[in-house]
């Protein structure tokens, strides 16, 4: 086994008695931009929750740096692993700078309050996400795209080598989706390991360096987009007949749903 | 979207005389901090002034010279009134007011519900049920006899709420539902006993309005120690509560275990509100209104909201108690009634003027 920073081992995942995934083993490769994709209810968000320790496997385990993530102090985990959940809540009246500053929580303690180092990291996170000029604004006044960049800045302020993002582009218009994904790609280029759940197959194929395709709680295919985004895999995962062409912009696989697909409705 | 941070003037009635920073629709973090520090100084000043007023003013009018003699000269006429009645009453007002303010702020932060108050955990009902039980089955009727029962009842009710809400799996919504269920059941029990027994009805009639009048017979030292310890725990929760304000998932990502935080929060709230309710009876509006007023001024940072709520709660309870003492001289109006009369309309005004701040 390669040294994967984050992995699920023979994990059974579910909510109460509802089992979503059984005996699921997934390794997140270090330094890659991994995208987990699949149809609705395929278990992709559940897998992300398990990797983020929000959900404890009933059987099996999730390993962070080779050790069970639930046996490590949660604040120590928070210094290794950042999480942007699907619908985070911005308290009323909070400013951008205050929200980003909350990302410093795992680095602070009763005796170690706000420091110059925290100040620097927060400023850096706001610069990286291009929101420095919004710092005094109320988060509730911002557009959806700006708000998502603020949340990403908060997770960046956590200074973790690993970032998990649960559907970071949902509810955004296309321009802001691309903006957020470009930002993710930049964070990846800077050396972070990213894991994101994405809905859009073509965006996944364009931005991911490693794809995990899921269906019915199981991994159907994984690997580089160029290798696994094939007409067969797409049909297998999504039940969607399609053709694959080269994306004229990026050269990555582009999924074109087949015209015949309409006849099935 | 509501804009809680744009209404600094709302804190004015309590932070009396504080220069408004109104008009600053986008307060820069620095000036906001300056404003918060200034506000804190004003609040401390207000609490000090009200403390003096609470010792100096009462059903029996006296000048400051007499008050001073009452504090320093055990032989003076005023000594029994000032030192034996007003001093413990003031101490209790400070302790109970800060406890209720802090408990309300913790409750709202923990449940992310702006309408939550400590009563949501069944604290008031639990205490009432215990008092009525003591009155009916044991024949206890005086305040001092029922303090221990009331505290135990409050604690049992909040633990019951927590367990019914699913213990470690409790969510804010389930806590609110469990609190409503426990409250309904508790009041049914209290009503049933009251209907059967006139003496219990009479005990409850006085207990249920909330008052500081029994302070001189209350165990002030244990009350202050309990509230002080629980306040220290509560204040330490400010930073994890700031993380929890971003949602359970985000809080987990930041290294806060929401389940552990809820247990600590419920424990602190139970001791704070349970102690205050046991000694004073239910005083409902402090825990609900004070955190609203405070957030309108400080913004959503719990590092400020919690200490501000303690001070504002203490100031509010002392103020309403003094008003109750002098409004109907030589009789007095219980603080619970004044709180409701002042707090009720104020709360309605607050809610109608702005949307209730989402937490």
UniProtKB/TrEMBL annotation, chain A:
<dbReference type="InterPro" id="IPR003439">
    <property type="entry name" value="ABC_transporter-like_ATP-bd"/>
</dbReference>
<dbReference type="GO" id="GO:0006826">
    <property type="term" value="P:iron ion transport"/>
</dbReference>
<dbReference type="InterPro" id="IPR017871">
    <property type="entry name" value="ABC_transporter-like_CS"/>
</dbReference>
<keyword id="KW-0408">Iron</keyword>
<feature type="domain" description="ABC transporter">
    <location>
        <begin position="6"/>
        <end position="241"/>
    </location>
</feature>
<keyword id="KW-0410">Iron transport</keyword>
<keyword id="KW-0067">ATP-binding</keyword>
<dbReference type="InterPro" id="IPR027417">
    <property type="entry name" value="P-loop_NTPase"/>
</dbReference>
<keyword id="KW-0406">Ion transport</keyword>
<dbReference type="GO" id="GO:0016887">
    <property type="term" value="F:ATP hydrolysis activity"/>
</dbReference>
<dbReference type="Pfam" id="PF00005">
    <property type="entry name" value="ABC_tran"/>
</dbReference>
<dbReference type="GO" id="GO:0005886">
    <property type="term" value="C:plasma membrane"/>
</dbReference>
<protein>
    <submittedName>
        <fullName>ATP-binding cassette domain-containing protein</fullName>
    </submittedName>
</protein>
<dbReference type="GO" id="GO:0005524">
    <property type="term" value="F:ATP binding"/>
</dbReference>
<dbReference type="InterPro" id="IPR003593">
    <property type="entry name" value="AAA+_ATPase"/>
</dbReference>
<keyword id="KW-1003">Cell membrane</keyword>
<keyword id="KW-0472">Membrane</keyword>
<keyword id="KW-0547">Nucleotide-binding</keyword>
<keyword id="KW-0813">Transport</keyword>
<dbReference type="InterPro" id="IPR051535">
    <property type="entry name" value="Siderophore_ABC-ATPase"/>
</dbReference>
């Amino acid at each position: 086994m390669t040294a994967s920073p984050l992995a699920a081992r023979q994990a059974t995942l579910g909510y109460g008695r509802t089992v979503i995934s059984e005996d699921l083993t997934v390794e997140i490769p270090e330094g890659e931009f991994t995208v987990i994709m699949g149809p609705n209810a395929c278990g992709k968000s559940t897998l992300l929750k398990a990797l983020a320790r929000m959900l404890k496997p009933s059987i099996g385990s999730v390993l962070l740096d080779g050790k069970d993530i639930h046996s490590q102090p949660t604040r120590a985990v928070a210094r290794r692993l950042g999480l942007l959940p699907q619908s985070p809540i911005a308290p009323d009246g909070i400013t951008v700078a205050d929200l980003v500053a909350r990302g410093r929580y795992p680095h602070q303690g009763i005796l170690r309050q706000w420091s110059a180092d925290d100040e620097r990291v927060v400023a850096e996170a706001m610069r990286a996400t291009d929101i420095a000029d919004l710092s005094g604004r109320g988060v509730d006044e911002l557009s959806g795209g700006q708000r998502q960049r603020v949340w990403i800045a908060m997770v960046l302020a956590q200074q973790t080598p690993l970032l998990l993002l649960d559907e970071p582009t949902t509810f955004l218009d296309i321009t802001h989706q691309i903006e957020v994904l470009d930002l993710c790609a930049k964070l990846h280029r800077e050396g972070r390991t990213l894991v994101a759940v994405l809905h859009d197959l073509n965006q996944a194929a364009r931005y991911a360096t490693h794809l995990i395709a899921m269906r019915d709680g199981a991994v159907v295919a994984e690997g580089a987009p160029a290798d696994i985004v094939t007409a067969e895999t797409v049909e297998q995962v999504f039940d969607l007949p399609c053709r694959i062409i080269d994306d004229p912009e990026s050269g990555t696989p582009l999924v074109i749903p087949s015209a015949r697909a309409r006849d099935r409705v | 979207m509501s804009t809680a941070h744009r209404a600094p003037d709302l804190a004015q009635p309590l932070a009396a005389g504080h220069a408004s920073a109104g008009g600053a629709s986008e307060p820069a973090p620095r000036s906001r901090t300056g404003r918060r520090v200034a506000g804190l100084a004003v609040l401390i000043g207000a609490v000090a002034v009200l403390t003096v007023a609470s010792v100096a003013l009462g059903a029996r009018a006296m000048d400051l010279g007499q008050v001073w003699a009452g504090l320093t000269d055990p032989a003076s006429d005023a000594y029994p009134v000032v030192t034996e009645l007003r001093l413990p009453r003031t101490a209790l007002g400070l302790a109970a007011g800060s406890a209720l303010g802090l408990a309300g702020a913790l409750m709202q932060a923990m449940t992310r519900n702006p309408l939550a108050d400590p009563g949501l955990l069944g604290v008031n009902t639990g205490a009432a049920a215990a008092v009525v039980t003591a009155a009916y089955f044991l024949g206890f009727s005086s305040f001092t006899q029922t303090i221990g029962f009331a505290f135990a009842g409050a604690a049992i009710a909040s633990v019951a709420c927590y367990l019914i809400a699913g213990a470690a799996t409790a969510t804010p919504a389930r806590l609110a539902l469990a609190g409503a269920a426990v409250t309904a059941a508790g009041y049914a029990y209290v009503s049933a006993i009251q209907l059967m027994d006139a003496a219990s009805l009479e005990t409850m009639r006085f207990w249920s309005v909330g008052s500081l009048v029994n302070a001189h017979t209350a165990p002030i030292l244990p009350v202050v120690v309990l509230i002080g310890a629980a306040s220290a725990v509560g204040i330490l929760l400010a930073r994890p509560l700031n993380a929890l304000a971003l949602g359970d998932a985000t809080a987990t990502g930041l290294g806060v275990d929401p389940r552990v935080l809820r247990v600590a929060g419920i424990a602190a709230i139970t001791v704070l509100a349970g102690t205050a309710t046991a000694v004073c009876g239910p005083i409902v509006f402090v825990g609900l209104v004070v955190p609203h007023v405070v957030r309108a001024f400080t913004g959503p940072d719990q590092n400020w909201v919690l200490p501000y709520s303690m001070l504002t709660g203490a100031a509010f309870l002392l103020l309403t108690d003094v008003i109750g003492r002098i409004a109907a001289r030589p009789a007095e109006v219980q603080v619970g009634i004044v709180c409701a009369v002042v707090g009720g309309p104020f709360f309605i005004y607050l809610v109608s003027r702005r949307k209730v701040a989402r937490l």
